[in-house]
Amino acid sequence: MKRINSGDKRRLRVSLCNAFDGRCAYCNTYVGMKGTVDHYLPQALGGTNARPNLRWCCATCNNLKDDMHPLEWEQVMPTVRLRQETPLEAKQRLLAQIAPRRQPMNQGPASTHDAA
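Structure (tokenized):
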């Protein structure tokens, strides 16, 4: 099996982290760059280092999955956790809630001249 040098390994980790938005591919927990690279089809069962076989996941799921076949893992994998809101998403949600209540500053009182 071809080994990956450290520079390529770093680029692969960053690429996988970005592809999965920093979240575990299995439980959806945000792990950022603290995630691990998992072989969807384990190397012990013939899986390769090819990009389509790699997943970004948390250490817990990677340890639980171990060398399970993907079909076996999908039967026992943890229930998907509710997606945790990022600080940026929380700020955007709060701003969206207050935005409709605000009046534009250049709007004056309604005109009564048109009633005539």
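The mean pLDDT is 81. Residues 45 and 93 are 44 Å apart (CA to CA).
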